[in-house]
Amino acid sequence: MTSENHLSRRHFALTGALAAGAALLPSRLVQAAAPYEQAALPYAFDALEPHIDAKTMEIHHGKHHATYIKNLNTALEGKADLAAHSLNDLMAHLGKVEDKALQTTLRNNGGGHWNHAFFWETLAPADKSGKPSDELAKAIDASFGSMDAFKTAFGEAATKRFGSGWAWLIKKDGKVLVTSTPNQDNPLMPGLVPDTDLGTPLLGLDVWEHAYYLHYQNRRVDYIAAWWNVVNWDKVSARFADAK
Ligand code: MN
Asked: Which CATH class is domain 126-242?
């Protein structure tokens, strides 16, 4: 067997294993390479009511998020080197894409896919919202003084983000901190987002009007206050434990 054959067999075996793993672990699916697929929500459209209404969830997932994925896949057609990246690696690589028009398309739609896949997993029905792990609670206290002070800081970042964007809790150098991004940017895009701290996202809040306008109209502050009821703290805590 030549080394080329050997490599290609190994590649096939690895790809097969990844595909089998992806079927078992929906959260891994979004990390795979292009073409990207949309995972079903891990709960019903109406599971977050009354805090986030079913119609908003249906349109947000079925139209907005789906469109980012479609546009991302279209942009990656015929670009095997970029398409081979996992979605996480694509975020980190965006700053190196030399074609600026392509970079913008990938930034908006790749970011849009990453952010929304992350957002759905960050949510849970109110009766399953849980609470931060002891380790995460300690890190929040160390950075902000208290859970209430953290929620105030996060809420301010979400409220003050002008126009469309996201508020984030990230882990950086072992500590947690709040930051925000415009549009569909996120804290995984080195060199692209000024005034944003980079790090591992733990919690993200979509403050685009499409995320709340049907139910809350212009009342972003009310949407933010209600959203805390449906945060999946088990997931956020697991991300904190997994993050370097
Ligand atoms: Mn959105």
From this structure: alpha beta
Q: Distance between CA atoms of 210 and 65, rounded to whole angstroms?
A: 11
Whole-number Å distance, alpha carbon 189 to ligand 1 midpoint, is 18
Instruction: Compute the distance between CA of residue 207 and CA of residue 184 in angstroms, rounded to an integer.
Output: 10
Query: What size, in residues, is the chain?
Result: 244
Neighbours of ion ligand 1 (CB under 5 A): 206, 208, 211
Domain ranges for the chain, please list them. 9-37+53-121, 126-242
Chain position carrying tokens 């009821």: 229
Tens digit of each residue's pLDDT (9 = 90 or more) over 168-221: 999 999 999 999 999 999 999 999 998 899 999 999 999 999 999 999 999 999
Architecture of domain 9-37+53-121 in this structure? Orthogonal Bundle (1.10)
> For residue 81, what are its two tokens?
């080197």
